[in-house]
């Protein structure tokens, strides 16, 4: 990873956990100690089982969070973008990352080391309290997703992911602002590349989606949502 410099005060990511607390007086000193990195598309910067190197915050880009499943198969557990936090699973309770992460596109990262994060948590009560609420919310999201996926068939899981991508990343000219391979969609849905290809082909024939140069566009999001609404 290559180092660069970013300025938290001029950051436009209002949802960034650090940015939200930049108004706190003591935070001004801590943000000066962060480190920035750029990752090329496909580059892995967090390795499952490796020693924790603090928390990462995405300044700009897109990242997939991975977990190794049965027989060594990778499972995408989360997709992240500008302002999102990475590496919090296991932080404070484990010395090693419980997940891996790699860039989907060229990405700029802000890293706060273990020492810096511990110092922030010990000296800024408001930040620590909000971090506790953040953990609770993420746990709730994770549990709800596990429950939802367990009750869905494969077609419903693929549709659910397409709608998630639309909500998370938006679209331009009716095409999603993220380009995932069929394998990545399969890894996220917990199925196979072949099944994803067949389902996407079926959705296209039904006029629910379009595919342009491997990019996917949702033509009738309401109808897609109606197929899975009982699981929400």
From TrEMBL:
GO terms for molecular function: DNA binding; DNA-binding transcription factor activity. PROSITE patterns: CNMP_BINDING_3 (PS50042), HTH_CRP_2 (PS51063). The keyword Transmembrane helix does not apply. Keywords: DNA-binding, Transcription, Transcription regulation. The keyword Transferase does not apply. Gene3D superfamilies: Jelly Rolls (2.60.120.10), Winged helix-like DNA-binding domain superfamily/Winged helix DNA-binding domain (1.10.10.10). This is Crp/Fnr family transcriptional regulator. It comes from Flavobacterium flevense.
């Amino acid at each position: 990873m290559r180092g660069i410099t970013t300025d938290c005060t001029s950051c436009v990511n209002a949802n960034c956990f650090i940015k939200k607390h930049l108004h706190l007086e003591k935070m001004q000193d801590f943000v000066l100690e962060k480190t920035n990195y750029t990752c090329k598309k496909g580059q892995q910067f967090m390795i499952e089982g490796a020693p924790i190197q603090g928390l990462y915050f995405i300044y700009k880009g897109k990242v997939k969070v991975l977990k190794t499943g049965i027989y060594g198969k990778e499972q995408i557990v989360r997709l992240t973008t500008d302002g999102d936090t990475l590496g919090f699973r296991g932080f404070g309770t484990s010395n090693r990352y419980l997940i891996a992460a790699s860039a989907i596109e060229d990405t700029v990262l802000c890293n706060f080391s273990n020492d810096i994060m511990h110092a922030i948590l010990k000296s800024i009560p408001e930040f620590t309290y909000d971090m506790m609420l953040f953990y609770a919310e993420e746990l709730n999201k994770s549990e709800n997703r596990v429950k939802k996926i367990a009750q869905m068939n494969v077609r419903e899981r693929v549709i659910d992911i397409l709608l998630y991508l639309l909500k998370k990343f938006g679209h331009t000219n009716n095409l999603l602002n993220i380009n995932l391979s069929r394998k990545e969609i399969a890894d996220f849905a917990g199925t196979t590349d072949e099944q994803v290809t067949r389902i996407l082909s079926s959705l296209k024939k039904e006029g629910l989606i379009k595919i342009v140069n491997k990019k996917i566009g949702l033509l009738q999001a309401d109808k897609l949502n109606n197929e899975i609404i009982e699981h929400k």
